Structures are given as structure tokens and as C-alpha cells.
């Protein structure tokens, strides 16, 4: 039996940090895992930028509350649910994700958590575990499931490599060039066509 593990941002919803950058006018926050393979370096940089501009958790949550799913995402998730199980495996944070999950029909989500001080300032983050996307796939395979994984960024690659089937969904050219072994799809109908071979 195949299960699906999917990234969240760039696959089902727009990139959160790009939206925050656009709403605040802070262009440095446009940098995402599509640009920076080192997640810790990226998050430390983001926290420094937030501090510099006096932005706190509620400022980001206000932006996230306005984000809508990508066109076709809800219908695609419903299509998958009729055929198999899906887990959204994301490097987002539980403090960010709830409004997004509600809009997507509440698929199962594995993600991380933020640490705030008493003023609601983001001071740290806690990974669920090291290399969590790959380890999620590995754990499911240990339960004798076959896994189809899909994502768009550098932080998805270890998950795609571990999976029985790995698919890049709307990745930037730099990720395509660095990982040519994965099929690339650009829309949900094309993705459904590939998935129909397995589920």
C-alpha cells in the first residue's frame, strides 16, 4: 500500500515567508528553502531579521491568516483522500499552520514548534527531530508501507531520496538542476497522472 508524504508550502499553499516579506516590505525575508539548503542558517537569519524590525509571532500569524491555498490544492487533497492516506510533512511550525490546515480540510500534519519569550518574540525553534522529513518516510517504510514523496525545495530532497517514489512539484530551476533524477510536475492534473500509476 502506498502512502503519500507531501511538503506544504509551494505544494498546497504559497510560501509563508515570501508573503510575510511582501506584507512587511522586508525583502530579506523572501529567502526560503528553495534558496538556502541549510535550514538552521535560514531560520537563525529570519529570527535576526524579525528582531531587527521588531516583528513578533502575532505579526506573522496575521499574514498567515490571509493566505489562501493554491488554486486546485483543496480538490487535489480530496482526490488523494479518496484513494489513500496522506501526511503533510513540513518545516513550518505549529504556531503558523493551524489556519492553513483548516483551509485545506485538516490533513495530518507533522511539523516543528517555535519558542517565544514573554513578549511573543520568537527566540528559537525546535525541530521535531533531525532530518524529520526523511525519518517520517523511513518510519512508514518500517511499517511496511511504500511511500510517494513530493516537494519543491532543498529541504525536501532527503525525503524524496528515501521514498519509493520521489516527485518534484513546481520546483525552482536550481533544484531541478541539482537533482535531475526526480520527475518534475508543474500542475495537479499532471501529478494525479503520475500518482494513478501507484494509488
Low-confidence stretches: none
Q: Count of DSSP E strands?
A: 7
Question: For the report, how would you describe the main beta sheet?
Answer: 7 strands, mixed
User: What's the number of domains?
Assistant: 2
CATH architectural group of the largest domain = 3-Layer(aba) Sandwich
Question: What do you see in this structure?
Answer:
By secondary structure, the protein is of the alpha/beta class. The protein has 2 domains: 2-13 and 69-195, 3-Layer(aba) Sandwich (Rossmann fold); 17-64, thrh gene product, domain 2 (Alpha-Beta Complex), CATH 3.90.1470.10. The chain is built from 9 helices and 7 strands, in the order βααααβαββαβαβαβα. It has helices at residues 16-24, 39-53, 57-64, 73-81, 94-103, 132-142, 157-162, 173-178, 188-195; strands at 2-6, 86-93, 108-116, 122-126, 146-151, 165-169, 184-185. A 7-stranded mixed sheet has the order 4-3-2-1-5-6-7, sandwiched between helices. A hairpin with a 5-residue loop joins strand 3 and strand 4. Helix 3 (57-64) packs parallel to helix 5 (94-103). The longest helix is centred in the first third of the chain and has 15 residues, at 39-53. The chain is globular. It starts with a strand and ends with a helix. The model has no long low-confidence stretch (mean pLDDT 95).
Topology:
Layout: E1 2-6, H1 16-24, H2 39-53, H3 57-64, H4 73-81, E2 86-93, H5 94-103, E3 108-116, E4 122-126, H6 132-142, E5 146-151, H7 157-162, E6 165-169, H8 173-178, E7 184-185, H9 188-195
Parallel strand pairs: 1-2, 1-5, 2-3, 5-6, 6-7
Antiparallel strand pairs: 3-4
Helix pairs in contact: 3-5
Amino acid at each position: 500500500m502506498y502512502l503519500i508524504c507531501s511538503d506544504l508550502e509551494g505544494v498546497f499553499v504559497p510560501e509563508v515567508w515570501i508573503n510575510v516579506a511582501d506584507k512587511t516590505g522586508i525583502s530579506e525575508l523572501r529567502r526560503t528553502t528553495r534558496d538556502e539548503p541549510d535550514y538552521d542558517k535560514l531560520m537563525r537569519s529570519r529570527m535576526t531579521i524579525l528582531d531587527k524590525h521588531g516583528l513578533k509571532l502575532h505579526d506573522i500569524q496575521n499574514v498567515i491568516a490571509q493566505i489562501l491555498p493554491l488554486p486546485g490544492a483543496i480538490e487535489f487533497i480530496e482526490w488523494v483522500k479518496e484513494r489513500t492516506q496522506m501526511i503533510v510533512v513540513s518545516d513550518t511550525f505549529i504556531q503558523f499552520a493551524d489556519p492553513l490546515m483548516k483551509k485545506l480540510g485538516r490533513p495530518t500534519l507533522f511539523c516543528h514548534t517555535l519558542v517565544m519569550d514573554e513578549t511573543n518574540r520568537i527566540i528559537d525553534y525546535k525541530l521535531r527531530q533531525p532530518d524529520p522529513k526523511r525519518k517520517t518516510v523511513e518510519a512508514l517504510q518500517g511499517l511496511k508501507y511504500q511511500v510517494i514523496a513530493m516537494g519543491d525545495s532543498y529541504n525536501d530532497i532527503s525525503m524524496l531520496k528515501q521514498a519509493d517514489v520521489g516527485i518534484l512539484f513546481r520546483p525552482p530551476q536550481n533544484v531541478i538542476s541539482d537533482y535531475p533524477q526526480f520527475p518534475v510536475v508543474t500542475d495537479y492534473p499532471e501529478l494525479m497522472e503520475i500518482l494513478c500509476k501507484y494509488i
